UniProtKB/TrEMBL annotation:
<dbReference type="InterPro" id="IPR017441">
    <property type="entry name" value="Protein_kinase_ATP_BS"/>
</dbReference>
<keyword id="KW-0547">Nucleotide-binding</keyword>
<dbReference type="GO" id="GO:0005524">
    <property type="term" value="F:ATP binding"/>
</dbReference>
<keyword id="KW-0221">Differentiation</keyword>
<feature type="domain" description="Protein kinase">
    <location>
        <begin position="22"/>
        <end position="289"/>
    </location>
</feature>
<dbReference type="Pfam" id="PF00069">
    <property type="entry name" value="Pkinase"/>
</dbReference>
<dbReference type="GO" id="GO:0035556">
    <property type="term" value="P:intracellular signal transduction"/>
</dbReference>
<keyword id="KW-0067">ATP-binding</keyword>
<dbReference type="GO" id="GO:0000226">
    <property type="term" value="P:microtubule cytoskeleton organization"/>
</dbReference>
<dbReference type="GO" id="GO:0050321">
    <property type="term" value="F:tau-protein kinase activity"/>
</dbReference>
<keyword id="KW-0217">Developmental protein</keyword>
<dbReference type="InterPro" id="IPR000719">
    <property type="entry name" value="Prot_kinase_dom"/>
</dbReference>
<protein>
    <recommendedName>
        <fullName>Protein kinase domain-containing protein</fullName>
    </recommendedName>
</protein>
<keyword id="KW-0597">Phosphoprotein</keyword>
<keyword id="KW-0744">Spermatogenesis</keyword>
<dbReference type="GO" id="GO:0046872">
    <property type="term" value="F:metal ion binding"/>
</dbReference>
<keyword id="KW-0479">Metal-binding</keyword>
């Protein structure tokens, strides 16, 4: 069997995975409590995967993770992963749990993450940044419409496919932001990476997580066009002061070539006053995005995903108001819990999405 050398799977886990038609290959990356492996479909599944996309498998071993992660963050991540379905969010193929391990099979992003890309290729042209910011902003708009905040938006969580489309990933800090009565829940947990955190998050007071997500989008856009961070984050106090005093500037190397519209957009996203900071809809409808006429209208897949967000939002609200366990989608087969089965129709629906760069 072609198992990854550095992977510690028991023989019965190997058998379980292969009986479900998956094989793990080499390691792709590592997070705090997870390892991600390239994987492939074997047997009858292989033929079913008409799109012939390679997969990545994130393995989380809860026996090695802290209680807070196991009890709070992981259940939220899984609950959200089984619900989301958007052309610019990494497609989840299936999720299994066996004993202490969770296996999340998802679309592999062959071209790594946005940070690696910028570091390797330098500042990204405005035309390409526009396409990518739009893709990630539409993914965030979809989440926000479902009343989900991502809370860890950063270049490392924007993955690039073989066709150079961006897919949002890593829902480890994401959460629903309304309670059973439909009231907004303010976040108190400090989440995400310092460099992308909004000033209100750094202050440690309750904050509106959707509005904080928009700040992080501003940092991502800044990084794309400058190949630099907007603020010095080596000292939290200084970072906060710089954010509050709007002490950032475009790099001299790029400033003269940038459009006024992109400057306006970054300024409205890196706005310390949350009452003035733009919302994600304003990014989607911004003059900067409209400079490329192909980007003005939603594709059919983008449009239907956005409509579905409203349906999912109501379903979630109903389920929490009736206090049904959110794991109602969970089914038990043998000793393996299947949290999300391989949903081929979604691959078909979104696998051929026409995005503005190339379809994938
Ligand atoms: N679908 C994918 N395709 C390709 N590589 C991936 C994919 N998903 C994750 N990776 C790689 O694995 C790494 C870790 O994945 P992920 O960020 O989901 O784990 P995590 O434990 O939640 O990370 P963190 O501790 O940063 O929150 C990523 O940085 C990326 O390099």
């Amino acid at each position: 069997m072609n198992m990854a050398k550095d992977l510690i799977l028991t023989p019965s886990e190997e058998t379980t995975l292969s009986s479900r038609g998956y094989r793990l290959l080499n390691k792709l990356g590592e997070g705090s409590y997870a390892c991600v492996y390239l994987s492939e479909l074997i047997g009858p599944n292989e033929e079913k995967d008409k799109n012939n996309k390679s997969l990545a498998c994130k393995i989380i071993d809860v026996s090695k993770a802290p209680k807070d992660f196991v009890k709070k963050f992981l259940p939220r991540e899984l609950d959200i992963l089984v619900r989301v379905n958007h052309p610019h969010i990494i497609h989840i193929h299936s999720i299994f749990q066996r004993k202490s391990k969770y296996f999340i099979f998802m679309r592999n992003a062959e071209n790594g993450d946005l940070l690696e890309f910028v570091l390797k290729k330098g500042p990204i042209s405005e035309a390409q940044s526009r396409v990518w910011l739009r893709q990630i902003a539409l993914a965030v708009q979809y989440l926000h419409d479902m009343d989900i905040a991502h809370r860890d938006l950063k270049c490392e969580n924007a993955l690039i496919t073989s066709n150079y489309n961006l897919k949002l990933a890593d829902f480890g800090f994401s959460r629903f932001v309304i309670d059973a009565n439909g009231r907004k829940i303010a976040s108190t947990t400090y989440c995400g990476s310092l460099s992308y955190a909004a000033p209100e998050v750094l202050r440690g007071m309750p904050y509106h997580p959707k509005i904080a997500d928009v700040w992080s989008l501003g940092v991502i856009l800044y990084i794309m066009i400058n190949k630099a961070m907007p603020f010095d984050d080596t000292n939290v106090k200084r970072l906060h002061e710089q954010q509050m005093n709007r002490r950032w500037k475009f790099r001299s190397k790029v400033i003269d070539s940038l459009s006024e519209q992109v400057k306006v957009l970054v300024t409205h996203l890196l706005e310390p006053d949350i009452t003035k900071r733009w919302r994600v809809e304003q990014i989607v409808n911004s003059e900067w995005l409209a400079m490329d006429s192909r980007l003005i209208h939603l594709s059919p897949a983008e449009e239907s995903a956005l409509a579905q967000a409203q349906v999912e939002r109501r379903t979630h609200l109903n389920s929490i108001s009736k206090r049904q366990p959110s794991e109602k989608k969970l089914t038990q087969i043998e000793d393996v819990k299947v949290l999300k089965a391989n949903i081929q129709e979604n691959v078909n629906k979104f696998g051929s999405t026409t995005t503005v760069v190339k379809s994938d």
